[in-house]
Amino acid sequence: MNIIETKIKAGASEPFKLLHISDTHLTLADERDNQRKRDLAAERVKGFPTSEQFLDEACKMAKRENIPIVHTGDLIDFVSAANLDRAKKFTMENDVFFITGNHEFSLYVGEEFEDEAYRNRSLSLVQKSFPDDLRFCTRTVNGVKLIGIDDGYYRFDQAQLDALKKEVDEGLPIILFMHNPLHEPVLYQRSMAEGPCAYLTSTPEELMKDYDDYRYRQQKADEITLEVTRFIESCPLIKAIFAGHLHNDYEGMVDGHLPQYVTGIGTARIIEIE
Ligand SMILES: [Fe+2]
């Protein structure tokens, strides 16, 4: 397990720590799931062979340090009875602040275009395995507000903007957690050097001209997404963003001033908030 330590100055009444992990991609299926899901599990486990081992180590570390785990999504690779049971065990046996990813709602992986309607086919079922609201959740620790916001489909919505503004009105410093990182030029360049698109929320349209049609439709920000992004970028109470999705570690800046940290597969990031 790769361990990274990150310090954030937010103005906490007492310093505290969080253990940030992401993108575990559990690939379980059993006799309660259909043959298609069991076949999918047998195939997908090849890409994520050490998920269980990593999750176990991370949970032990959090217990040893007596700190909460923040998981920024893709805990499960696809919706199955066995994966949801495992997710429930994880959230019940540990102190977990959970932010959903895109895979939490994958019925099978990549078989359909994933949008709000697709998510709503499994949202209520998946929600039962997680104590935190999967679309928007908060927790206050030592005078610092932790906010989780679902942008797993590269979009925010009006309800999330309203909820975020309400939290901001309380005046506490905020640390933001989301699955997909926000666009920033350096991260965009890094992602484009490795793949067909950047996999970031609110990438400017002019930088998407080489995306294929599917990726363009998937990742093009709508008006409300751009509005939420501008709100985040201009809110002085938001001190940092932590995300996942890219499967690699990264540290950068959104809009040239807002620190953004991406935690990859196999990494446990210990965040110390002062
Ligand atoms: Fe993801």
Query: Using DSSP, what is the number of strands?
Result: 11
Lateral strand order in the biggest sheet: 5-6-7-8-10-9
Q: Note the beta-strand portion.
A: 15-25%
What's the overall geometry?
A: globular
User: What small ligands are held by the chains?
Assistant: fe (ii) ion
Overall pLDDT metric: 97
What's the SSE pattern? EEHHEHEHHEEHEHHHEEEE
The CATH topology name reads Transcription Regulator spoIIAA
State the assembly state of the protein chains. single chain
Helix proportion: 25-40%
CATH superfamily: GpdQ, beta-strand dimerisation domain
> What is the highest CATH level, the class?
Alpha Beta
Could you give a short description of this structure?
It contains nine helices and eleven strands. It is of the alpha/beta class.
Characterization of the model:
By secondary structure, the chain is α/β, with parallel strands linked by helices. It has a single domain (2-273), classed as Transcription Regulator spoIIAA. It has helices at 35-44, 51-65, 81-93, 116-120, 123-127, 158-168, 185-194, 213-219, 223-234, and strands spanning 2-8, 16-21, 69-71, 96-98, 136-141, 144-149, 174-177, 238-243, 250-254, 258-262, 267-273. Helix 3 links the parallel strand 3 and strand 4 (96-98). The longest helix is centred in the N-terminal third of the chain and has 15 residues, at 51-65. It is globular and about 50 Å long. It starts with a strand and ends with a strand. The relative contact order is 0.20. The protein binds fe (ii) ion. Fe (ii) ion (FE2) binds at residues 74, 101-103, 179, 245.
